[in-house]
TrEMBL record, chain A:
Species classification: Bacteria, Pseudomonadati, Pseudomonadota, Alphaproteobacteria, Rhodospirillales
SMART domains named in the record: AAA (SM00382)
InterPro entries: AAA+_ATPase (IPR003593), ABC_transporter-like_ATP-bd (IPR003439), ABC_transporter-like_CS (IPR017871), ABC_transpr_LolD-like (IPR015854), MacB-like_ATP-bd (IPR017911), P-loop_NTPase (IPR027417)
Name of this chain's protein: Putative ABC transport system ATP-binding protein
Matches recorded under Pfam families: ABC_tran (PF00005)
Signal peptide per UniProt: none
Organism annotation: Nitrospirillum iridis
UniProtKB/TrEMBL annotation, chain B:
Record's protein name: Putative ABC transport system permease protein
ABC3 transporter permease C-terminal domain span: 296-409, 697-804
Cellular component, GO annotation: plasma membrane
Species of the source: Nitrospirillum iridis
Keyword annotations: Cell membrane, Membrane, Transmembrane, Transmembrane helix
Main location: membrane
Short name of one Pfam family: MacB_PCD
TM stretches of this protein: 21-42, 290-311, 340-363, 383-408, 429-449, 694-718, 750-769, 781-800
Keyword Transmembrane helix set for record: yes
Residue ranges of domain MacB-like periplasmic core in the record: 20-244, 430-658
Membrane topology: Multi-pass membrane protein
Length: 226, 817
């Protein structure tokens, strides 16, 4: 589904130049569940941002399907992103002024979907993550685990082919963490490709493949016996 | 500690450059505008306060009260009034009269005209104008003396050291210079309403034809032409004199007609210091004008202050986290408040300084636009500080206080959650709405005033102003004697179509009105007050007024010509004086059609018969503020003052040169004063044009300042909503989606501002237009246009910003979380 070839990301600020990713080569197939691990600052988020087309690489190739998107502008990236990719963040990133329902609906507003169908799909997604009874609450009125379930609903409501999760359990206790991991596994079982960054070895075990990053480079890849 | 705060404050201001600049510049513009207007208002409300006895000096006004008529007040009185007051009223310490006379003297070879004041000797004891040379107590003691201003002395003698020199008039009279005063300050009646630069004793003889006429006035209680000032004794309340005035007047002034007992004529004492802002006969600065200035200044300053407060509160809400951290580290509330106040005060102070610089740069232009002279002294540091400091302090305090109090209140944890916790967004939206309300009202006012000004200047005046030349200054013995010869000689010049003399041309602000009635009417019927215009043969033709019926004054009918003396009732002259009526006069008298009016008799002043020989179309003698006044034309030889020359379309510079030559040849001792009629008419509308220019300037400024604020707020919102915008993009929002979102957020207050501004502007401008007899209709389209342009400007201000934020990569946005 996607292939990274000699992918490098360099951040330049006034004082320093940071090489966050250094000649990374990764191939991820349709339907895979991949976990990315590594110490803080090794480039995990940078990698996910590029894979999620939120950012461009400094050099190297990024094949998404049979398109080379590394040099695409924001407009075309947004288009591909909208159709194919969902995001889950460590800090949930819900909009405080919008209700649970509206937060999830937001993901469909930018697709041309009629209002009726939109509402149905939001309800469906909320039911799937067991939060339908809280649809008219504001994010602050929910616990962390509940907020992350809303975020997952929002990520999947547009039915993306690939889900990117940056430390989705980082802010959750173990019970809530387990629940989120189960949901991701379920989604993967339904055919969604999942790429997840995590610090937790137990959670990484849910994935079929683990990629270890260190200092911007891939240092190990291990396939978990199915 | 303070030093530490200062350092932090400066660093914050530098770090948030955009806000600092927007805030500073906006406030500086507002302060500068308000300061300029404030200075002007201060200047206008502080006239003549500098005279040591200012509180005891009054101008004597003549007032007339009549049922069903607006009370009338006149600034001029009869010549004998002053001495009578001084004699009859023990409360009056001194009396000074001021009459003005045109003198002609030769300056660098050519005859020039200048204006001299004939005053009673104590003039300079009442009014403290500093003498550079001479003794104020005695300078004007004797006839034949003259006191002049420094510039006049330099003009005529090349030096201000002119005492002892002689000012020679073309009449052969010489006036001895007995004093030189410093040029008058700008804030005195004698610079503006009654400008004086030369003074002589009231008994001075000029030998130019004026003396007998002026001497003759000593017994004339009904000829009002002289200004009378009185100095009351210390402690006298002017109100105690008022009851005595009607009797005093009645004892000397015979009533106009026995049948008008309900008319009360009296005197009023107008305090010297109030004269300038209590304009009579339209001269001076009216309270309404001052109020308009204060209002516009308040609007512009208000907009700027709102900006400042909006931007500072917005900016500070971004610092909620900083505040929370400071608090967790143990900072006390007072310290935080102090810190915010200091930042705000620093910025306000800097803006104030910038505002001062702007005032220094712009004030001369501003005064030029107003066509007002203000002494440089008023622009010096002290005054400016007085004008600028209050808004600076107010703004610094308000701008800092709100965020200081709000931010320092909540518990640190609620602040740590994020900037949204610090709110205030609704207040800001309301304030933005207020700003745009003010701006939209100003824009509508500007457009309507512009329309009306243009409309008024294109109004059909009833005559042809283009292609006519006015020659002035015939109202002296030599001029009146030469009228016929001048007219004949001018008519022979090729390129001249017609020529005629008159007392005035339209827009001269002439106000000679008389009472007229029809014979056989009951005495109880009120007289009709018509404008009386003395003219000579040929004038109505030269003016280009269409004749509607009968004939005009004609050299072949010697009986057409009359004089003011010939009109006076009871001189045995019962021959009906021929007159020409305007269409409006025919209508008011109820004479039917123009043709029916010809041949009818009208009574002047009650009993003098006049015969209508012709009717002409209406002429606008005033401005578009008034409707066509009923007018009666009489051919009065002794009232003539101007010669009107109608030019052929092919007239050129040679024609004008020939006209000038003719004047110089026939009237060598009279100064040549020539102007084009249309230039003269235009001056009437200049005041309004100036006001509308000024208003346009200030509405532009108001919009600019409001947009500075909006720009800052847009930047702030973009920043505050970065996370949300990033998220929306992650979820698939396009750049256009985001721009639309942000633009809509700022459209709402502007749209609401329209709803408030429209009715407000409708009422205010409806009132203003009510002052014009000929006026444009208020056009709803203009309101829509003003609203739309405000919206477009707001969009243009915000859109760029929104686009920049929206176009950024979403990952940048998400990093802010
Ligand atoms: N926008 C940026 N500008 C500059 N440096 C950055 C930026 N984003 C990340 N970095 C740097 O790149 C390196 C990798 O960061 P990141 O991908 O966030 O690591 P991780 O998610 O593994 O903790 C770090 O050293 C970080 O400081
Ligand atoms: Mg990270």
């Amino acid at each position: 589904m996607l292939k990274l070839v000699d992918l490098t990301k360099v951040y330049r600020t006034e004082e320093v130049e940071t090489t966050a990713l250094n000649q990374v080569n990764i191939h991820i197939k349709q339907g895979e569940f991949v976990a990315i691990m590594g110490p803080s600052g090794c480039g995990k988020s940078s990698l996910l941002n590029i894979v999620g087309m939120l950012d461009n690489p400094s050099s190297g190739q990024y094949w998404f399907g049979d398109e080379e998107v590394a040099g695409y502008g924001e407009r075309r990236l947004a288009d591909i992103r909208k159709k194919n990719i969902g995001f889950i963040f460590q800090s949930f990133n819900l909009i405080d002024e919008l209700t649970v329902f509206e937060n999830v609906e937001l993901a469909l507003l930018y697709h041309d979907i009629p209002s009726r169908e939109r509402k149905e799909r939001v309800k469906e997604a909320l039911a799937k993550v067991n939060i339908a009874h809280r649809e008219s609450h504001l994010p602050q009125q929910l616990s962390g685990g509940q907020q992350q379930r809303v975020a997952i609903a929002r990520a999947v409501v547009s039915r993306p082919r690939m889900l990117l999760a940056d430390e989705p359990t980082g802010n959750l206790d173990s019970a809530n963490g387990e629940e989120v991991m189960n949901m991701l596994t379920e989604l993967n079982g339904e055919g969604t490709t999942i790429v997840m960054v995590t610090h937790s070895m137990p959670h990484a075990q849910y994935a079929r493949r683990i990629i270890n990053l260190f200092d911007g480079q891939v240092v190990a890849e291990n396939l978990r016996a199915a | 500690m303070l030093l530490n705060y200062l350092r932090v404050a400066l660093r914050v201001l530098v770090r948030q450059r955009l806000y600092t600049v927007l805030n500073g510049v906006g406030l500086a513009l507002g302060i500068a505008t308000a300061a300029m207007m404030g200075l002007f208002v201060w200047h206008e409300t502080h006239f003549d306060g500098f005279h040591g006895q200012a509180g005891r000096i009054f101008r004597v006004l003549q007032a007339r009260y009549q049922p069903a008529h607006a009370p009338s007040r006149m600034v001029v009185t009869s010549k004998p009034l002053g001495p009578t007051l001084a004699q009859d009223l023990p409360e009056v310490e001194t009396m000074v009269r001021v009459a003005r006379h045109f003198i002609v003297l030769r300056h660098q070879g050519t005859p020039v005209e200048d204006r001299i004041a004939l005053v009673d000797a104590p003039f300079f004891r009442l009014f403290d104008f500093p003498f550079l040379a001479g003794d104020p107590a005695t300078a004007l003691k004797d006839p034949g003396t003259v006191v002049m201003t420094e510039s006049q002395a330099r003009r005529y003698f090349g030096t201000s050291d002119a005492v002892g020199r002689t000012l020679m008039l073309t009449s052969g009279t010489g006036l001895t210079v007995t004093g030189v005063v410093r040029d008058l300050p700008s804030n005195t009646l004698f610079s503006r309403e009654l400008p004086l630069t030369l003074w002589t004793n009231i008994a001075t003889k000029f030998h130019d034809g004026w003396d007998p006429m002026f001497a003759d006035q000593d017994e004339k209680w009904r000829n009002d032409f002289i200004h009378t000032f009185v100095l009351l004794k210390p402690g006298v309340d002017p109100a105690t004199l008022a009851p005595r005035f009607p009797a005093l007047l009645a004892a000397h002034r015979q009533p106009m007609r026995a049948a008008t007992p309900d008319v009360v004529e009296t005197l009023e004492l107008q305090p010297l210091t109030a004269m300038h802002i209590d304009p009579i006969e339209g001269i001076g600065t009216s309270p309404a004008t001052l109020a308009a200035f204060v209002g516009v200044a308040a609007l512009v300053l208000g907009i700027a202050m709102v900006n400042f407060i909006n931007l500072s509160t917005a900016r500070s809400s971004l610092r909620a986290r900083e505040v929370a951290i400071r608090k967790t580290l143990g900072s006390r509330r007072g310290q935080l408040v102090g810190q915010f106040l200091l930042e705000s005060a620093l910025l306000a102070l800097a803006s104030g300084l910038l505002g001062l610089v702007l005032v220094e740069l712009a004030m001369p232009r501003f005064l030029g636009l107003l066509n007002v002279r203000v002494d440089g002294g008023f622009l010096s540091g002290g005054w400016l500080l007085v004008a600028v400091l209050p808004p600076v302090l107010a703004v610094g305090l308000l701008g800092g206080l709100y965020p200081a109090l709000v931010l320092s209140r909540p518990r640190p944890t609620s602040l740590l959650r994020g900037p949204q916790a610090a709110g205030g967004g609704r207040l800001r939206a309301a304030l933005v709405m207020l700003q745009f309300t003010a701006a939209i009202v100003l824009v509508i006012a500007t457009i309507v005033m512009g329309q009306q000004t243009r409309y008024a200047s294109t109004q059909d005046l009833g005559f042809r102003p283009e292609g006519a030349v006015v020659l002035r200054g015939l109202d002296r013995p030599a001029g009146l004697a030469g009228v016929q010869a001048l007219r004949d000689a001018l008519s022979r010049i090729p390129g001249v179509v017609s020529v005629g003399a008159a007392a005035n041309v339209p827009s001269d602000r002439s106000v000679w009105t008389n009472n007229y009635r029809l014979p056989g009417e009951a005495d109880s019927e009120p007289d009709l007050l018509f404008r009386t215009e003395p003219v000579d043969v040929g004038y109505l033709d030269a003016l280009g007024v269409p004749r509607l019926a009968g004939r005009l004054f004609d050299p072949d009918h010697p009986a057409d010509i009359t004089s003011r003396a010939g009109l006076r009732a009871g001189d045995g002259n019962r021959v009906a004086v021929p007159i020409v009526l305007s269409a409006a006069a025919v209508k008011r008298l109820g004479l039917g059609t123009a043709d029916q009016a010809v041949g009818r008799t009208v009574l002047y002043g009650g009993d003098e018969p006049l015969t209508v020989i012709g009717v002409v179309d209406d002429v606008q003698f005033d401005s578009a503020r008034s409707s066509f006044e009923p007018t009666i034309y009489m051919a009065m030889r002794d009232e003539l003052s101007i010669m009107l020359v109608r030019l052929a379309p092919n007239a050129d510079a040679a024609t004008l040169a020939a006209i000038d030559d003719t004047w110089r040849r026939l009237l060598p001792d009279l100064p040549l004063k020539r102007e084009f009629l249309d230039d003269h008419i235009r001056q009437v509308y200049e005041e309004e044009a100036r006001q509308s220019d000024l208003l346009a300037l200030f509405s532009g400024l108001a919009i600019l300042i409001a947009c500075l604020g909006l720009f800052g707020l847009a930047a702030f919102t973009a920043e505050r909503r970065t996370k949300e915008i990033g998220l929306r993009k992650v979820l698939g929002a396009t750049v256009a989606d985001i721009v639309r979102l942000l633009v809509w957020q700022f459209s709402k207050p502007v749209l609401m501002a329209n709803l408030v501004a429209w009715p407000l502007a409708w009422v205010v401008m409806g009132r203003w237009l009510g002052g014009f007899a000929y006026r444009v209709q208020l056009d709803p389209l203009i309101f829509a246009l003003a609203g739309l342009s405000a919206l477009l400007i707001a969009w243009a201000t915000v859109a760029g910003h929104a686009a920049r934020v929206a176009a950024a990569k979403p990952v940048t946005a998400l990093r802010y979380e």
